[in-house]
Each structure stands twice: as structure tokens, then as C-alpha cells.
Amino acid sequence: MALLTIENLSLGYEGREILKGVSFRVNAGDYLCIVGENGSGKTTLMKAILGLRPPLGGAILPGDGLKRSEIGYLPQQTEAQRDFPATAWEVVTSGLLNRGGWRPFLTKEEKKIARGALATLGVADLEKRCYRELSGGQQQRVLLARALCATRRLLLLDEPVAGLDPGAAGEMYDLVDKLHASGITIIMITHDLDAVLPRATHVLHVGEDVFFGDVREYMESGRVSRFGRGEEA
Q1: Residue 61 sits in which domain range?
Q2: Selection from 72, 126, 77 nearest residue 99 by Cα
Q3: Cα 200-75-69 angle, rounded to 5 deg
Q4: Any idea what DSSP says for residue 119?
Q5: Is 88 helix (H, G, I), strand (E, B) or coil?
Q6: What is the CB-side half-sphere exposure of residue 146 using CA atoms within 13 A?
Q7: Smallest Cα–Cα separation from 62: which of 151, 144, 176?
Q8: Residue 102 falls within a domain, yes or no?
Q9: Is 21 domain-assigned?
Q10: Per-position b or e across 143-164, b if 16+ CB within 10 A of its CB
Q11: What is the number of domains present in the chain?
């Protein structure tokens, strides 16, 4: 069943379109890889799915009872965010805020969810550590645990291995594989096609020439190329 249906979507800033006429569907259990040149609108699309960017046209339709507040999100980190002065526990539990609004304490069930997420991502021992003192790989695991607190259904990941060394990047991909195997649907923006295409079920290629289909169809379409890293639109 479709968790998300995008119909003829157009996105942009101040009336300037950067994405036009995009349509695709994400079913439960999919692993969708979003690719495209820098500035093609990948991150803007992800923010629109989260309700953070209004569309210029078209529709974003959650399905199967999915609420936007139930979507887990791992954004790209800025340098300021990497230096955030909080404990890993505080970062992770901030992912629970949409469950019941702000309040000065966590319920027993919420603490169980947070500790379960930390354990799943292999960072339970970092609970009391200061976030800014963690390595890049550890920070990404903590942020993924935060996203996991928000959902067990759909995770949106924006370049989750950006800035990580090859070893940490491989570990992050393995963790995402583990979450996908547990039944969580994945939507990932990436430039790392060699690593992600063997894992993905579908590809959305955005830009002037939009493509959506399964990985085999994408490979046969002739659109496969390497993309440079940089700021996302």
C-alpha cells in the first residue's frame, strides 16, 4: 500500500520553479534513492514531503494513515549543529516531541523508545556523552536514533554519509539496511550511487529529465552518472 503519493508536483522559491511535474509513489517497504545534480531540488522535495516547503503546484498525499508528524528525518548537518552543546540522550529524545507536544518530562514508554533506538543504532553507551564531543560517525548514529524515535514506518535521509570516512559510511549504510529489513520504508538523497543502488528498490532522478522507476529500469535508462558533492537546493 502506498505510504506516499506525489502527483504532478512543482516546487521552487519566490515563484521560480526548480522542480516541475514530478510524480511518483512510495509503497511500504520501498527503499527509494533520490539522485540528481546539485541544485536540482532534492532537499527541497524532501522538505516539501515533511510539510516544511509549500508546493507551487500538484499534491503530496500521505497514505495508509501516515501522518507527517510520524515521518523520521535525518537532515544534512551544518557545522553549527555538529557543535551542539547537549547530551546524546537530549538529542535523541528531541525526536519524541511530536508524539505528545512539549512537556517537562518523558513518560516511561518514551524513555523505552529512546533507549531502544540508541541500542538499535549501537550507541547506547553514548547516552550521557556530549554530542559535540562525538565523532562524525557517532553523531550520525545519534541523529538516526533521533529520527527513529519519531517513526517505525518511514525515514527520510538527506546524504546520511556526507563527511564520514569510508569505514563510518559503510557502517551507516549497514544500519540503514538493518532498519529497512525491519520493515521501515526508506527515502534517501545520495550522490553515492555505487553504494546505494545495490540496496535500493527504486530511483527518482530529478532535474530537467525526471525519471522514476525500479533500479533495473534506471540502470537501463542510460541516466546513471556520478554526481559531485555540494549544497543542495
Answers
A1: 1-66+155-163+187-233
A2: 72
A3: 90
A4: H
A5: helix
A6: 22
A7: 151
A8: no
A9: yes
A10: bbbbbbbbbebbbbbbbbbbbb
A11: 1
- CATH number of 205's domain: 3.40.50.300
What span, in angstroms and rounded, lies between the C-alpha atoms of 40 and 18?
Answer: 6
Whether residue 19 contacts residue 9, with contact meaning beta carbons closer than 8 Å, is answered with yes
Show pLDDT as tens, one digit a residue, over the chain (233 residues).
799 999 999 998 877 889 999 999 999 999 999 998 888 899 999 999 999 999 999 999 999 999 887 899 999 876 667 788 899 999 999 888 766 555 567 889 999 999 999 999 999 999 999 999 999 999 999 999 999 998 889 999 999 998 899 999 999 999 999 999 999 999 999 989 999 999 999 999 998 889 999 999 998 887 775 443 334 44
The sign one gets for the Cα dihedral 32, 35, 38, 44 is: negative
